[in-house]
Design goal:
Order of helices and strands: EEEHEHEHHHEHEHEEHEHEEHEHH
Number of strands: 13
Shape: elongated
Structural class: alpha/beta
Bound molecules: adenosine-5'-triphosphate, magnesium ion
Helix content: 25-40%
Number of helices: 12
Largest sheet: 6 strands, mixed
Radius of gyration: 26 Å
Length: 337
């Protein structure tokens, strides 16, 4: 279990983490979400005593990290996959970690097998691809067979098979009763992996709740209906005091009434329905809704050059910019000049 109490980190003017109080529990996967710069990595660094809190505390199974007798056997973490000596082979990198933490040599081979790097164990890690580096970082986290595991964006760079593998790995680790804390920006992946969510924005706690409640509380759920007798359906709904909104494509959307109730109402009036489907927003929609105000780094929705005159022609040999400039129009002009 990891307990944060009023955890705060200030870098000069910047309040990176602002009074976080929450608990990461064993037996489940807890997802850690927040927009870029929200303070996730800083929080994780403070959990591992890599950064000193300005205020507040982190307790790992009731102790400060520096009080742990065998840190790597208590907490395994992947924070930055590149944080290793590139000149060392994967095997030697793990062996160094094992020997300095009283972990038997045989465990190195085991974790290399687990992460699928046994065939490149003798290769220097500086030649590794992004995904191979992530796998080696994950091997390091697993090395001490710890009860608490922490991963900062572990699926970054992994191929589909690797993503599937780490999803199952995290679920299995949690099912064994371990504490698994993982950050990711891949919402669809998080929705499949995490049971509980801690969401922060600009360093502050925005939500600490189960995945199901998070989606329910931060998004709209409604029922979608389609019928060849849409006018009569609207009358029947209105007669029952149900408000429906007609969409551009001719569907009806109803808030606040269960699909079963709507189906029975339609049946009582012998109305044909071609669709009656409860719609639940995705984790991504719920996340965007909750964090909209705390996003610090916005991309421009219009591509650069979008305000260029519609007749802006590119240089010879370069396709004319589409109306409104188009992506790369400025760059193409420079390239052609
Ligand atoms: N060593 C540092 N010195 C100064 N400012 C820092 C330092 N580390 C982090 N920050 C600042 O603290 C804030 C939180 O950064 P952090 O890396 O924790 O965010 P994050 O949630 O992990 O973001 P991302 O999703 O982009 O990884 C940012 O504004 C960042 O610039
Ligand atoms: Mg980060």
């Amino acid at each position: 279990m990891i307990e944060l109490q009023g955890l705060t980190k200030r870098y000069g003017e910047k309040l990176a983490v602002d009074g976080l109080t929450c608990t990461v529990r064993p037996g489940i996967v807890t997802g850690f979400l927040g927009p870029n710069g929200a303070g996730k990595s800083t929080t994780m660094r403070m959990m591992l005593d890599l950064d000193r809190p300005t205020h507040g505390t982190v307790l790992i199974d009731g102790q400060h990290y520096r009080q742990l007798r065998d840190p790597l056997r208590t907490v395994g973490a992947l924070l930055d996959a590149k944080a290793m000596h590139g000149g060392r082979s994967a095997h030697n990198h793990l062996l160094c970690l094992a020997q300095s933490n009283g972990i038997p040599r045989a465990r190195v081979r085991e974790v290399l097998d687990t992460v699928g790097l046994a065939s490149v164990a003798g290769k220097r890690s500086k030649g590794f691809s992004l995904g191979m580096g992530q796998r080696l970082g994950i091997a390091g986290a697993l090395l001490g067979d710890p009860q608490i595991l922490m991963f900062d964006e572990p699926v970054n760079g992994l191929d589909p098979e690797g993503i599937h593998w780490i999803r199952n790995l995290m679920k299995n680790l949690a099912a064994q009763g371990r504490t698994v804390f993982v950050s990711s920006h891949l919402m669809s992946e998080m929705a499949l992996t995490a049971d509980h969510l801690i969401v922060i924005g600009q360093g502050r706690l925005l939500a600490d709740t189960s995945m199901a409640d998070f989606i329910k509380q931060n998004s709209r759920s409604y029922v979608r209906l389609r019928s060849p007798e849409v006018e009569r359906l609207l009358d029947v709904l209105a007669g029952a005091g149900v408000t429906a909104v007609t969409t551009e494509d001719g569907h009806l959307e109803v808030d606040g009434t269960e699909a079963a109730e709507l189906g029975e109402l339609a049946a009582r009036h012998r109305l044909v329905l071609h669709e009656l489907s409860p719609q639940q927003a995705s984790l991504e929609e719920a996340f965007m809704q909750l964090t909209a105000e705390s996003v610090e780094y916005h991309a421009h929705s219009a591509p650069p050059g979008a305000d260029a005159p519609p007749d802006a022609a590119g240089p010879p040999g370069v396709a004319a910019a589409p109306p409104g400039g188009g992506w790369g129009a400025d760059w193409q002009k420079k390239k052609g000049s």
